[in-house]
Design brief:
By secondary structure, the protein is mainly alpha-helical. The chain has one domain (about 10-80). It has three helices and two strands, in the order H-H-E-E-H. Strands 1-2 form a two-stranded antiparallel ribbon. The longest helix is centred in the middle third of the chain and has 16 residues, at about 25-40.
């Protein structure tokens, strides 16, 4: 979702608080944490997906050792498949 330029940071902080309080899409919160972590490190993730090695639904967190950048096609093709 593109960021709106007509609102300040307080709008986004309040929106985040409401989303967190409602328990809305906990998986999305973890994905946002991963994106922010890569952005903070200055890593260019344009055209790539951030893959969680241990899936979020299986308890994986957005920490350095559990994240890797992948080609979107490769990432989406293995999602939900167990590796042998």
């Amino acid at each position: 979702m593109p960021r709106r330029k007509d609102v300040g940071p307080e709008y986004w902080k309040e929106k985040w608080r409401k989303q967190k309080a409602s328990g809305e899409a906990e998986d999305d919160l973890e994905r946002q944490k991963a994106r922010r972590a890569y952005d903070k490190k200055g890593i260019d993730r344009a055209g790539k997906h951030i893959d969680h090695k241990k899936k979020i639904k299986d308890g994986g967190k957005s920490e350095g050792g559990n994240l890797k950048l992948r080609d979107p096609k490769a990432n989406m093709s293995d999602n939900g498949k167990k590796k042998k």
